[in-house]
Amino acid sequence: MSRVEIFDSTLRDGAQAEGISFSVEDKLKVVKAMDEMGIEYIEAGNPGSNPKDLEFFKEVKQIQLNHSKLTAFGSTRRRNIKVTDDANVQSLLEADTQGVAIFGKSWDFHVTDIIQTTLDENLNMIKETVAFFKEKGKEVFFDAEHFFDGFKSNKEYALASLKAAKEGGADCLVLCDTNGGTMPLEVYEMTKEVAKVLPEIKVGIHAHNDSGMAVANSIMAVEAGARHVQGTYIGFGERCGNANLSTIIANLQLKKGYDCIPEEYMEHLTSTAMLIAEIANITLSEKEPFVGRSAFTHKGGMHIDGVNKASHSFEHINPEIVGNARRFLMSEVAGRSTIMKKIHKIAPEITKESDEAKQIVDRLKELEHEGYQFEGAESTFELIIRKQLGKYKSFFELENFKIIGEQPAKDSIFSSYAMVKVNVDGTEELTAAEGDGPVHALDSALRKALEVFYPSLQEVHLTDYKVRVLDSKSATAAKVRVLITSSDGKDIWSTVGVSSDIIEASLIALIDSIEVKLLRDLENKIKAYI
Amino acid sequence: MSRVEIFDSTLRDGAQAEGISFSVEDKLKVVKAMDEMGIEYIEAGNPGSNPKDLEFFKEVKQIQLNHSKLTAFGSTRRRNIKVTDDANVQSLLEADTQGVAIFGKSWDFHVTDIIQTTLDENLNMIKETVAFFKEKGKEVFFDAEHFFDGFKSNKEYALASLKAAKEGGADCLVLCDTNGGTMPLEVYEMTKEVAKVLPEIKVGIHAHNDSGMAVANSIMAVEAGARHVQGTYIGFGERCGNANLSTIIANLQLKKGYDCIPEEYMEHLTSTAMLIAEIANITLSEKEPFVGRSAFTHKGGMHIDGVNKASHSFEHINPEIVGNARRFLMSEVAGRSTIMKKIHKIAPEITKESDEAKQIVDRLKELEHEGYQFEGAESTFELIIRKQLGKYKSFFELENFKIIGEQPAKDSIFSSYAMVKVNVDGTEELTAAEGDGPVHALDSALRKALEVFYPSLQEVHLTDYKVRVLDSKSATAAKVRVLITSSDGKDIWSTVGVSSDIIEASLIALIDSIEVKLLRDLENKIKAYI
């Protein structure tokens, strides 16, 4: 199999995304995660523009890497000075990484109008900077900034910038679509021409997503001969983001037969995406190709039937290959066979025609009629099945509660308080808490009371809270559906509540969320015992 | 300029997305929004599989459309029956739309193994169903399901399915990448071959995003000769979603010079994307190409310098063309001209350079930073401008309020009460009300108190109440944005409130809603007097 090198820039170009800022610990976690996925190069910072990155490069040496080589990112020397006099070049050297990515101008307009030097001097800057790092024994990637725009503006010059890097001794010429505006067929044709003009040197691609083409442009460059792909693992980066490597790896390895990462790591593609999102503190889009929660989720009845007959009828790959899972949504459209699959996970002995199955289906219909929707709330679904089958005992009772919200005078601050009394096996606990709004106050009070009995609840935090107003015609008296997603750092689960009262709907979902955690803990204890 | 038809399936394929469910009102809003964007075709439902869609097709006839043609979606007739005996075909006819999209099998494996009929019978099913609808005077799109997989499996048969549709009289052959697994170069080559084999008929593309290629595949098909593109306006759909039309329209029209929508509507591309997200109650990704909040947001100092020197140095297009705005994360500079348009409705004399304009812009930025969004909340926007200009006097003051919610014992019913004290020109009124939940109780109490002074408030009712959790990571302590739509039977207006407390956010929007009604009453009185 032909090899395509993967070069992850989550820590450099990814850190340019709005809302992203990594601590040193975060960065070390990302480096480990990329190494464990078998990613070949990790671009970990820009030491010239950011002194903190230099500190990080010292720290990262503590980590033993099994697969990845670290690289640092920086510019060619500035105009009209010696390479050795350039502070940025010195910082890059100090980073002491195996590889360096040097970006330089390949668009004539940028040379004359943005950095304001001559076309010849820019070529010298490229060649001398690359040569300097080659002499120091580095693997050198030349990032040809705005290559495709440059090619359209002045093809000879864009190619000359690549040739300068090659003459300097560069190991790889990386064609950058810096503004992200290039169309796939253009990338294909221009990359083909580069591969033709410069056949003896490795060509790479660095794409941005401003036209929604970053993944496609990367693949098109590979089709045209590129063998090195830069991006960020889950695609975040400045503006619309960088090329999403999790999508690219899956496409290249599963669809086009290239060798990007060790075959046995493919099944970690999804969990690593979740981990990177967790570290970056962003929500991974549910519809992310291959790794998103909905990527293999079927709603239409016909599609569900088809997948049950032959999974490839409505799935482009088997989700297990990338460590993801198939899900059938519990909508009105989905028939009883979908529900039976879920029942069988809890009680394999129940048949489709049994009274139990019928009762569960009736109960689900009743709840759906009330406004429940079990899409993305499998845990509530599981609890309902267990309760119907008598395979469930609640871990606590909520005896009573009261919420007070008040703004005592004009322009004073609105405050919310909650009091709850819970009962665990006959022992009562009364607590109160304050919060941002009534739901938050109630959540805080409930956890506070229950942690007395179940300390493991301290691990749980809510990762998502969604409110949907049903039948919004009846406005503030309308029913609301609250969907809560919780995590204890290992598992993620979702629960749902419906009521005409947002407090009650939230409470139903909160209680279920806690019950699920306690149920999982119990199951794990039993497993350990058996 | 060559024309490419845009066909929006937000209401059909988009409704297959996890978590999406549209009310009839939502659907009517989407139809209006697409018509106002100049989208040529709106696929509004699947009447055969969903009886509710049939009701909707009756309702939608009330709406006067200026640009769009409505289409309904359904299958070819079932095997071994007459077209006229097929219930699905009958429902499709009953929908009474100008166009119909008929999907049929073009992958031999699906014919034999999924719908389990003969290859010949499938071709008859296609041809006869298309012919039936042509006889009824419809514009017929043949959606060749799994066309690209079919082409790879049995090219002759895949092409035969297209020929059958053409023989039936189809107006357009839509090549569907139903599983979303096809790579861009494959789409390009196969579409080229279709255009070569069937040169006299319009070819379309319907792409799914399972490989992250839906947008690129749509563009590649157009490069290969397709002139009809199906997708959903902001890309949601089953699994990883459909081709994102907002991205495709921008790419085709701005980059490739095709004519998709009237030129003058391009500047509404972004606001329409926000509107559709709002109706669907989903969060528009900040990094969405062209229309996302971060799409033209610059963080790197070098990029900001570059953009200040020449905007095209680090931007592939000018954001104003698509109604978006450039943002610099360090020093924000907003698109003031959009705001000026709104200011001029209230105070035509104010110039762009005036202090008043500057203060309004600053205030809006402050509110946006807090999480406000004025798309679809024009009335709040108007009140803010009036307040800043001193052209506003509140009709009442809310002196104080208190909310109590309690469930006094286990299994007893949860009840909500609100007390409010208002002050109108020095006269106080204290009232209490009960409600379904705290917001409803507060709304009822507030109206009850104010109707004493302003009887016309009895005409007002809320027609919509939407809650959006912002930054859902911080879960129940996250900020919420509440959008309220009100009507007095003549006018409809929307207001918005943001707070970390859902009660407070609702209250802000409720108060504004009442103020707008009283302002309109006053304006009408003045008009009658003059």
UniProtKB/TrEMBL annotation, chains A, B:
Keyword Amino-acid biosynthesis part of the UniProt annotation: yes
CDD domains: DRE_TIM_LeuA3 (cd07941)
Keyword list, A-Z: Amino-acid biosynthesis, Branched-chain amino acid biosynthesis, Isoleucine biosynthesis, Transferase
Biological process terms in GO annotation: isoleucine biosynthetic process; L-leucine biosynthetic process
Leading EC class: transferase
Keyword Amino-acid biosynthesis included in the entry's annotation: yes
Name assigned to this protein: Citramalate synthase
Origin species: Natranaerovirga hydrolytica
Lineage: Bacteria, Bacillati, Bacillota, Clostridia, Lachnospirales
